[in-house]
């Protein structure tokens, strides 16, 4: 790999040496920043991006132990462990050379140097830096891949005419690398569709990285997406590779994109336009190559309002727009979905397969499913656990008696009831002002309040309640909200 466009930082207190090196490296097409004061190293590394450091070992007058060189070597590696450092000295001996390598230097040059050898050493140092940086990115990507391997293969059910139309679009869009925006209520299967697009795309052997923008706190947004350098802020104890870089070569799924505040939308837009990210506290732009799929449950009118969403960002992310119909508009899919989930949970709980009564199926098809496929899935899970006979009846699904009506109290054994009880996570805050001490009622009231306060935004309500979105969904379902 030729790295002739690389950039070197050379630190030596001898101006003649710096001039000689500058002339030599210029001829070789290597950019070099020369510096005579080593204490400027931290600042320089912060301000500029370098691919290798050439460091003298002795700075104090008369010094020849190399002690300062070792000290600055440690400092450089603390700041950027991927950077290759070459030490140089006029007093070098094998012992110092060995010690320098042990402490993390990648090579050692004796003064006066041979031009050819110096250039060759610098070239391999720059290549080493590049591969260390690539390895860090690969590590992050591998983590994502390993997480994907842990996930069971997702089965996509969608035989209804409305879903068939969506799947035709998926078919056409998937191989094109076009950015896709998926719109739909919570639980309609936006992530399932995003994974399907990835699976059918040219990037299918690469990683699929899902980022729930609604779950990232505002102050961690940049660090999570773009990464950070060690020391960029108090908690940045190590370098961190951002999710955008981890998704390199693959598909990046940005869920709940409608939740981003406007100023974060600007940051995201500029990254998408320039196709590079600069980690927080860093200075080296990292090129990114991702296929972007975004999703939101925000109604389209709101998304098209400049007060809520940057329209230039919208144009960038919605080359193809898919609208997932709510489950109530595709009741034809319900039998297949129920059969699929019944099989899934019977296997999971090692329960013999059960049948479904006609009445139960009719009730499931007639219900308006405000929580969509996710809620249906949970209802089936509960029925599988609680249903006593060989045939599951309508009552086993704990459906509200009329659409929008109050749900039956969830049985003690339901998965929802198995979730942490209210009170363990702050859900009973202010219980005394609610006029009742019945735990279930209080929980429902608190959740309703949180949802009202955040205009139905699940991520924000969950964050305020101090629980995960999944946990909030379970509770909403339990209370028929
Ligand atoms: N067509 C489908 N076939 C099989 N399972 C589905 C389908 N659609 C959704 N599901 C299941 O429903 C649940 C919710 O799906 P998913 O997470 O994709 O919805 P979402 O729209 O992304 O939700 P949210 O808006 O909350 O992010 C998942 O468990 C998923 O497996």
TrEMBL record:
Signal peptide as annotated in the record: none
UniProt entry keywords in alphabetical sequence: Activator, ATP-binding, DNA-binding, Nucleotide-binding, Phosphoprotein, Transcription, Transcription regulation, Two-component regulatory system
InterPro entries registered for this protein in UniProt: AAA+_ATPase (IPR003593), AAA_lid_NorR (IPR058031), CheY-like_superfamily (IPR011006), Homeodomain-like_sf (IPR009057), HTH_Fis (IPR002197), P-loop_NTPase (IPR027417), Sig_transdc_resp-reg_receiver (IPR001789), Sigma_54_int (IPR002078)
PROSITE patterns in the cross-refs: RESPONSE_REGULATORY (PS50110), SIGMA54_INTERACT_2 (PS00676), SIGMA54_INTERACT_4 (PS50045)
Modified residues (4-aspartylphosphate): 56
Entries under Pfam families matching the protein: AAA_lid_14 (PF25601), HTH_8 (PF02954), Response_reg (PF00072), Sigma54_activat (PF00158)
GO molecular function: ATP binding; sequence-specific DNA binding
Residues annotated as domain Sigma-54 factor interaction: 156-385
Response regulatory domain span: 7-126
GO BP annotation list: phosphorelay signal transduction system; regulation of DNA-templated transcription
Protein name: DNA-binding NtrC family response regulator
Source organism (scientific name): Nitrospirillum iridis
